[in-house]
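During the second year of the project, the team shifted from modelling isolated chains to modelling whole assemblies. The rationale, set out in the original proposal, was that interfaces cannot be judged from single-chain predictions alone. As a representative example for this report, we include one of the complexes processed in the last quarter. Its constituent sequences, exactly as entered into the pipeline, are reproduced here:
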Amino acid sequence: MWLPLLGLILGLALGLLTDIQIPAVYENYLSIAVLAALDTLFGGIRAHLQQVYDDKVFVSGFFFNIALAAGLAFLGVHLGVDLYLAAIFAFGVRLFQNIAVIRRILITKWEDRHKNGMKNQ
Amino acid sequence: MNKKIIARITIVSFIIGLMIAIQYNTVQKPTERDTRDIWEVRQELSEEKKRQSELLSEILTLSEDVKEYESSNSKNQGQVLQNTLEELKREAGLSPVSGPGLTLNIRPSMELIEFGYQVEPITPELLIRLVNEIFRFNGLYMEINGQRIVHTTAIRDINGDTTVNSIPINDTEVEIKVITESFEMAEKLYSYLYASGFQDDFYIDNLDLVINKAQDKITITKFDGELVNSYLVEENKGD
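Output from the structure prediction step:
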């Protein structure tokens, strides 16, 4: 259960300690990629809680979303339209929705457990 | 939870962590952009070259010293050592120096006297700027109203009086003596000071800065107090 958190911390530590920097031009792409990755992660957790998790969907979604978001931003830069805003908006909304669903599922589970515990007593 | 799912999520969160950290690094520490144009770069290059030539001339002087030490016999070595000591004393300000240079005078401006304003002392800031500028422009030794400027000299305000080496300087007449390497340098310094905005800066404070022509020989007194050495300690060599 704590392994994903450990992975996150490990990634953060590695990134901060190695002091890797990317050119400022690509900052936008990375921020969108982070957002896309977060969206996929929470989508995966939600799918798992709803028992509809599919490995292929999760992994392909992770890479595809990142590529799509970066591609959209790239296209936006070349067309002179801030298309990355569309990606930020879409991922932002989905992130909130996913987190809301996860929260509801967890609350329902917790309530069920609580009720069962009362019954058993 | 299925082990496979956990592994997948862990890998994804690791990648997310890495991306966030990289993004953080990039946003927090933007590499400073080099916005200098070709002239600024050239100017910096010329400054560095100047420094290089200064260092080279210093190396030359020191290697001459070394040669002198090596070539002289044991009797003469004492003399050479004495010479070096004298040289060091002169540089530190412990012995009087004379050489080509120029003098500056600071007086209250005529307007101030005519209108009967109160004479204000020279502000330390202005004096420090002048001194720094002169040292920056090849001034070797300097004295303000008989006070030799050494490396510990403080020009500051004490109870409303501008002091040099903790001794108040005269309000109405200040004389600054500067010694340079050569007469040509003194002339250059004269031209430089004349062209710089110092006279205007002094005039704002109702002071006249008189820059006198370069002279062949100017004598500067030695430092009046005792130099305190807080950090240098004599090494005991044991032989």
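The CA atoms of residues 36 and 65 of chain A lie 6 Å apart. The first helix of chain A runs from residue 3 to 18.
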